[in-house]
Structure formats: structure tokens, C-alpha cells
Design goal:
Layout: E1 9-12, E2 19-20, H1 22-35, H2 43-46, H3 54-63, H4 68-89, E3 95-96, H5 100-109, E4 113-117, H6 122-131, E5 140-142, H7 155-164, E6 171-174, H8 178-187, E7 191-194, H9 197-201, H10 224-233, E8 254-255, H11 316-324, E9 330-337, H12 343-350, E10 360-364, E11 366-367, E12 371-372, E13 375-379, E14 384-391, E15 394-401, E16 404-410, H13 413-422, E17 438-443, E18 469-474, E19 476-481, E20 486-493, H14 500-514, E21 533-534, H15 538-553, E22 559-569, H16 574-584, E23 589-594, E24 598-604, E25 607-614, E26 617-622, E27 625-630, H17 635-646, H18 649-667, E28 676-685, E29 689-699, H19 706-713, E30 721-722, H20 724-734, E31 745-750, E32 755-759, E33 763-767, E34 770-779, H21 785-807
Parallel strand pairs: 1-4, 1-6, 4-5, 6-7
Antiparallel strand pairs: 2-3, 7-8, 9-20, 10-13, 10-23, 11-12, 13-19, 14-15, 14-18, 15-16, 17-18, 17-31, 19-20, 21-22, 22-30, 22-34, 23-24, 24-33, 25-26, 25-32, 26-29, 27-29, 28-29, 31-32, 33-34
Helix pairs in contact: 1-4, 3-4, 5-10, 15-21, 16-21
Length: about 800
């Protein structure tokens, strides 16, 4: 066994170590057994199961009451019933073990950093810690749902060490079950205090570093882990020369340690083990001060609530452990201060130096049009991308790596992209935001032809030839925490490649070095302001609106979005267009994608669909946005315009129809009864306009994937119409050119299993020396053709105005 230095941190279990939760387990089990009409259980029987997890507990109880086949058949229903019952009783039948707070204070007296690691779900763990005023003692807390794996896997212990910023060899674990013993030993923790019984029963011997103490005098009041903490409370002092393990002599415990000092072993009394070995004895040494900082600061994520912490310290041991578990993408992270940077300056430093930024992106957000979102994301130039083009009604998807096509698939691109994404088994790091790598890019409007096959052969003229789908495999990403002023550089290593860990670390050092370089902004001097032209002449557009109204009057549909495309010659820097647009039209979804031969610049106010984990449940959200007025130049005028918008019968009728369409889309993939309208027709204000917005949410059915969600919601009803399929057909009949990116979706599908896609509106595409901007208007029975034409002109104006600012000299006078 290896030698260790002074202990710097303690990782402490919750159930059975600090809090006696057997009463809660008993109450929940008896509620479950009552529902299943099975005999109840006594608390004394439950105590033996504490610390082994809910599944083991339920399986053991069922097995004691039913034949094996019946127990297996009823297990899922029993586990669900138990979990529901436990959620209702959490904390009601518990007690704090004696002297636990005193034991925690004893650790704090010498500035030992504390983490609580439990297999209990994080929400329940935090409730118990709050209930008994324990929470302030811990710098970090991990629940069973905070990480992809529970104890006895070593990952929770390693994550705690990582978050505390200490090496495993400098940490002591205090726990109460075999799970704690296995996890700590596998993680390489130098010291472990756990009950002796089960570990010894598995054949633990002195050669394994196992020693047994005496039996506790009053086991009804304590469990071994709580005795360890209680003993610390009774010490008058803890120091390097007075190891606290000495006070544990009369208690049942296991010590697993090798220390390099020759301090006397407190375990020798009444025992022939451990034998003396020259130059070392087995003990625990406390007294090394933790890093400077205030005591009793609780953090589950960092200094600012929600901030990742300690993420940059993955050891090669942990990396190899994750690789051995089958993960083929493992994120390594470097952290830096970014309080003097902006997302744009960081994009220029990190992404632009390589291949002129080709296949990179920048994602930002201004919430409600008035304050920046918590996180911004920079995707560094990707080596691999997926692109799909419709050829003769079929979808051809190519996987391109370093400019070379390495794989081609003909057929449903959604199925292929799902299979491609499933190739990556990605180790998750706790404390990071929803997107830290994955697929990022766009699904063009015409990707609907792979969903509604009857549209496969009705595509209008395709004069741009851009892919219908283009996604970057993002394996290097920079996450900017705008609240905490921090930057997280994330590089995904493939353990199947030689020296993966070393090369990823080297890459992080290289990226960090770029942060010290001066930023080189694209200075935009004045050029020639160019004119615009349209494929859809005004008279032709007005005629299309009249045709759409005839179809509505005939009962074919209720509403349809008819749009036009405006072209403007543009040879200025695409990033300058993004700078101008984000200044003129700050929005919840702001994006700059450099795809090499074309660029996408947008500031979309509207979500297409979001899929996220919330409280352990997969939630899908659609936020229909329809109805617009300008902002007023005074608060009174602003409020007047908002009232006018909410009083407009046409706007309200159109918005209600879109709410119904959203409910129908969500209802196709959500659990019955879970679809709710959480916001209904609220005013959302942006820098220049205000909109009517609603929000529709639902809890996804089991087994639903990203692409099931996308198929159900794509394209947005606000960009197509209702009924959707007939609206899509009419759009093909009336619009003269293929929509391309416009009206589709832009965003990401993350490695963590979440998805966030905006509708591609207020967006410009720069390709072949031209800027293309598109907009549509919702045609209903009482639409006025001239007004609808003007609405499309106004909507496209945001991008065109930004282009004029660039051509007039964006940095003139700077």
C-alpha cells in the first residue's frame, strides 16, 4: 500500500452515518407493502439494509415475502410505489445521531474540507441536511442522481475529491456500508472508516489493510459511522501529533491506511494487528490545513450557486477508470478567469487562429432582450461534421472528417444521426451546464421532407445548394460563465487513441496560452452600401396571399405562413455582421456559425423545442411566439402598445390557434395528462419589439429520443401554419424558391442528452458574396395582402439594417 501525506479532506456518508433514516425507510416500505397487500416490516429488520440503495432494499424485502418469480415480476411496480412513498415521508421519521455536529466541528477546527456523498437522491439529501442544520458544514454535496453512477462505483468519491480540489490520497472516508468501503478503496482514498462486519465477512484480512476494533456498548444509539463522528466531538483537540483515530479504539470500525510516519498505532490495544513494519505504522494523520478560505461555506456547484467547481483536476487514474468502464469520450477541463473578456473576444482568441475559424461557432443569449444569459458557448473548429442533402427525393448524409467524406448513408437522416450520436459513450462531469459538447448546427426548413414523405418531390427551386442539415461534432468547447466571470475549456479525449490523456492535457495548455494573446478584432471600415433585390416580386407576393386566402375560405386550412427572400450583395466580414446584429437586436438565441464556405448569423427570439431534465423528469417545451408591436419611446406608450396588442382580435385568434397546435405537437410525445400551458399570452419585451408569448410543456413518454421530439415539432407551427401538413403543401405551391435554413431550427443536441433548438428567423446566410434574409407573414381569413407584405419587409429589416451598419463602417470613429 502506498504512503500518504496529511489528510486534507473528509468524505462523509449521510444515511446511517449522520442521520438515522431507518424510520423513513420503514414507513415508505410499509406504504409500498400495503399497496401490494403484503406483510409489513419492522424497523429492526430495515436497519440491516441501510446504505445499499433503494433497489437492493425493495428487492430484499420482496424476496423475503414472495417466491422468486413473483418478486421479480412485481419489482418495478414495487420500486415505483416505494419511491413515491419515500418522497412523501422524507425526513419525517429520522433522527440525528448524537454528537454528529460536534464531530463535524472537530474537522472544521483544523480546516479539513468536507464533502457529503450519498446514494440518496440529491433533493432528499439536501432536505435532510437542512432539517438538521448540517448543510453549512459541507463545501460540496453529491446525491445519487448527481452523477451517472452511484457507490460502490468510485466515481462519486473521485468527483468529491475533484470538487474539493484534493488528491484522493489526501482524503479520509467515513461511511457505514460496504458500498462506502468498495467505493473508497477503488477511488484510491488513503483512509477509510466503515463498519467491520460485512467487509470482514467477505474475507478481509490484515493483508487487505483491515483491522477490527471492539464492539460498541450501546448499538441502539449509534451506528459505526456515527460513532466515528461522535468520538471526534469528544476530543479536546485535534492535531498532527494527536490523531483523532485514537478516540475510536472502543468502537467497531475498519481502517484502511498506510501512513509514512512512525506515530503509534491506536489500534494495537487489545489486538495483535497491525504488526510493526520498519519505517511505518498504520494510522490517520490530521492537521494539514486546507486551502485558505472561510469555513462552513456550502456549495453544490461552486462559489456562486450553480457554478462548476474543481472541474479541472481529473487525474490519469480517474481517466483510465472511466476508459475501463467503456467510455470512449472523456472530457478534460481547464478553468480560467474571464472577467476581463467578452464572448466575442474569446471567440477571436480561441476559434479564429485555426483554419480561419471554419467549422466553429459562438452561441449567446440575452434573456427577455434585456440581460445576458448565464452561459455563452464557443465551439472550436470541428474536425468532423455531418451534412445531409436531398437528392431525387432521398436523403444523402455524409460524415466528413478533416475535409474528406469518410461515410455515406442514404435514407432517413434522422435515424442515421441518432445512430451516429449513439456511437459516443460520453463520461459526464457534474456541475456543468446543459451544453458542453455534442452536435451543433442547423436543420433547414426543407428537412421536413424527410418527415412528411408526401413533400419529398414538391421542393421549389434550389438556387443556393446548401445542405438541408449540417451539424458539427463539437469535441472542443469553451463555456463562459457570465455570472461568475469564469471560462471552462473542455476537450473530449478518445481513450482509444495513443496518449489520449497526455494529448488532451497538452491541448488544454495550448488553449490556455491563447488567452494571453491580444485580441485581433476584424476592423470594419466603410464599404459601399449595396442595394437589395427579391426573387418574389411584390405583385406576385400579393397574388400569393390572395391565393392563400382562397384556400382558407375553402376550409382547407386556418392559417399559413407565406414568406419571401431578400438578397443583398455582401463581401464584408461575416463576424462584423454578427457584431452589428447582436447590438441592434439582442435576443434569447444569438448565434454565429462559420461553416467554411458559408456563414449563418442570427438573433432569434423564438424557441422551436427544448428537451431537458428537470427534477429527474424529461421535459419538452415549446414557446409559440406570435403577435408583434414596436416598443414605445416612453413607459406609458410602451404599455399602451402592449395593451393594443393583447386587444387585437386577429393577433389573439392567431396566437390561440398556435397554442393549440403546440399542445397537439407536445401531446404526441408526452405522457397523457402531463401537457400544460405554463404561460399564456404574456408580453415579452425586446430592444425594439414586444411579442405575445406562451409556453407549452409536457413530460416525455418513456423511450422518446431527441429525434422523436424533433419529428413531432418540426417545423414550427409559427413558420408553417395549421393544419400543418396542408400549410406545408401550400407553401411549396406559392413560394418561388426553396426556404433553406429559414424557418428550420438552429442549436444543439448535447452529449448530456439534452436539446435546445431555436427557430431560424431574424437570420442571415452569407454565401457566394451575398447575404440572404428571409421573413414570412401569417395569412388568415381577414388578412390584408399589402399589410402582410409590409410585415415581411419589417421582419427582414433587422438583418438588413445590421448589414448596412457594417457597410457604413461598424468601427468608424473607434
Amino acid at each position: 500500500m502506498r504512503a500518504i501525506g496529511p489528510v486534507e479532506a473528509a468524505i462523509i456518508d449521510l444515511d446511517g452515518t449522520m442521520v438515522d433514516t431507518a424510520g423513513d425507510f420503514t414507513a415508505a416500505l410499509n406504504a409500498m407493502l400495503g399497496e401490494l397487500e403484503l406483510p409489513s416490516i419492522a424497523q429492526s429488520e430495515v436497519i440491516g439494509y441501510v446504505g445499499k440503495g433503494a433497489e437492493h432494499l425493495v428487492r430484499s424485502v420482496l424476496s423475503a415475502r414472495l417466491p422468486y418469480a413473483d418478486a421479480a415480476r412485481r419489482f418495478d411496480a414495487a420500486l415505483t410505489a416505494y419511491q413515491q412513498a419515500y418522497a412523501a415521508v422524507n425526513g419525517r421519521h429520522t433522527r440525528l445521531y448524537p454528537d454528529v455536529i460536534g464531530g463535524l466541528d472537530a474537522f472544521g477546527a483544523v480546516r479539513i474540507k468536507l464533502a457529503c456523498v450519498t446514494n440518496k437522491p440529491l433533493r432528499f439529501a439536501l432536505e435532510l441536511l437542512e432539517q438538521y442544520e448540517l448543510r453549512q458544514h459541507f463545501r460540496v454535496v453529491f446525491g445519487g442522481d448527481s452523477l451517472p453512477r452511484k457507490k460502490p462505483d468510485p466515481l462519486p468519491m473521485l468527483a468529491a475529491c475533484d470538487a474539493l480540489g484534493v488528491r484522493p490520497a489526501r482524503a479520509v472516508s467515513i461511511g457505514d456500508s460496504e458500498n462506502d468501503a468498495q467505493a473508497a478503496r477503488a477511488a484510491g482514498l488513503a483512509t477509510l472508516i466503515v463498519p467491520y462486519g460485512e467487509l470482514a465477512a467477505r474475507g478481509g484480512t490484515p493483508a487487505d489493510g483491515v483491522a477490527r476494533g471492539a464492539v460498541a456498548s450501546d448499538p441502539s444509539q449509534y451506528r459505526p459511522g456515527s460513532l466515528a463522528l461522535a468520538s471526534l466531538a469528544r476530543l479536546s483537540a485535534i492535531s498532527r501529533r494527536s490523531p483523532p483515530i485514537a478516540a475510536l479504539q472502543p468502537l467497531p470500525f475498519v481502517v484502511f491506511v498506510v501512513a509514512p510516519t512512525s506515530c503509534p498505532s491506536p489500534l494495537r490495544t487489545g489486538s495483535s494487528w497491525p504488526p510493526r513494519s520498519e519505517g511505518s505504522s498504520r494510522c490517520i494523520r490530521f492537521g494539514a490545513q486546507a486551502a485558505a478560505g472561510p469555513r462552513h461555506r456550502f456549495r453544490t456547484r461552486g462559489v456562486v450557486p450553480g457554478t462548476p467547481t474543481g472541474l479541472a483536476n481529473m487525474t490519469e487514474f480517474e481517466f483510465q477508470s472511466l476508459a475501463n468502464d467503456g467510455y470512449n469520450r472523456i472530457p478534460l477541463i481547464a478553468e480560467a478567469l474571464a472577467d476581463l473578456e467578452t464572448p466575442l473576444s474569446l471567440y477571436l482568441k480561441l476559434a479564429q487562429p485555426e483554419r480561419a475559424g471554419a467549422h466553429s461557432f459562438l452561441l449567446e443569449s440575452v434573456v427577455g432582450g434585456e440581460r445576458f444569459g448565464r452561459y455563452s458557448f464557443i465551439g472550436l473548429p470541428a474536425r468532423t461534421l455531418l451534412r445531409t442533402q436531398q437528392v431525387g427525393g432521398a436523403g444523402i448524409t455524409e460524415v466528413v472528417r478533416d475535409g474528406q467524406v469518410i461515410e455515406t448513408h442514404e435514407g432517413d437522416p434522422f435515424d442515421f444521426i441518432a445512430q451516429f450520436q449513439a456511437r459516443f459513450k460520453v463520461a459526464q462531469r457534474p456541475g456543468l451546464p446543459r451544453f458542453c459538447g455534442g452536435l451543433a448546427g442547423y436543420f433547414g426548413y426543407d428537412a421536413v421532407r424527410f418527415i412528411e414523405r408526401k413533400l419529398a418531390h414538391s421542393t421549389p427551386k434550389d438556387d443556393l445548394g446548401l445542405p438541408d442539415i449540417q451539424l458539427l461534432l463539437t469535441e472542443e468547447v469553451a463555456v463562459i460563465d457570465n455570472l461568475a466571470g469564469k471560462l471552462y475549456l473542455i476537450v473530449y479525449a478518445d481513450p482509444g487513441t495513443p496518449e489520449a490523456y497526455t494529448r488532451a492535457k497538452q491541448r488544454l495548455r495550448e488553449l490556455r496560452s491563447r488567452l494571453r494573446s491580444p485580441v485581433q478584432p476584424p476592423v470594419t471600415s466603410a464599404t459601399v452600401r449595396t442595394d437589395t433585390y427579391r426573387e418574389f416580386a411584390k405583385d406576385d407576393y400579393l397574388a400569393a396571399v390572395r391565393k392563400a386566402k382562397e384556400s382558407i375560405a375553402a376550409g382547407e386550412l386556418m392559417q399559413v405562413q407565406i414568406g419571401q427572400r431578400i438578397t443583398k450583395p455582401f463581401r464584408d466580414n461575416p463576424l462584423s455582421l454578427y457584431r452589428a446584429l447582436r447590438s441592434l437586436n439582442p435576443s434569447p438565441y444569438m448565434y454565429f456559425y462559420n461553416f467554411g464556405d458559408f456563414q449563418v448569423v442570427g438573433a432569434s427570439p423564438e424557441i422551436l423545442v427544448r428537451q431537458e431534465q428537470r427534477g429527474g423528469d424529461p421535459i419538452v417545451t415549446i414557446r409559440p411566439l406570435a403577435g408583434t408591436r414596436a416598443r414605445g419611446n416612453t413607459p406609458e406608450r410602451d404599455a399602451q402598445l402592449a395593451t393594443e396588442l393583447l386587444s387585437d382580435p386577429k393577433e389573439i385568434a392567431e396566437h390561440v390557434m398556435l397554442i393549440d397546435l403546440a399542445r397537439n405537437d407536445v401531446g404526441r410525445i408526452a405522457q397523457t395528462g402531463s401537457v400544460v400551458v405554463t404561460d399564456k399570452m404574456v408580453i415579452e419585451k425586446y430592444s425594439h419589439v414586444q411579442h405575445i408569448v406562451s409556453s407549452v410543456e409536457g413530460k416525455l413518454k418513456p423511450g422518446i429520443t431527441h429525434f422523436d421530439v424533433l419529428r413531432a415539432t418540426f417545423p414550427a407551427g409559427t413558420l408553417s401554419g395549421a393544419p400543418k401538413v396542408r400549410a406545408l403543401e401550400l407553401i411549396d405551391e406559392l413560394e418561388p424558391v426553396k426556404r433553406g435554413l429559414y424557418g428550420g431550427a438552429v442549436g444543439y443536441l448535447s452529449f448530456s442528452g439534452e436539446m435546445d433548438l431555436a427557430i431560424t428567423i431574424r437570420t442571415g446566410v452569407i454565401h457566394g458574396g451575398n447575404l440572404y434574409a428571409q421573413a414570412a407573414a401569417g395569412i388568415v381569413a381577414d388578412s390584408v395582402p399589402e399589410a402582410e407584405w409590409q410585415e415581411t419587409e419589417n421582419k427582414a429589416r433587422a438583418v438588413l439594417r445590421a448589414a448596412e451598419h457594417v457597410q457604413d463602417g461598424l468601427d468608424a470613429g473607434c
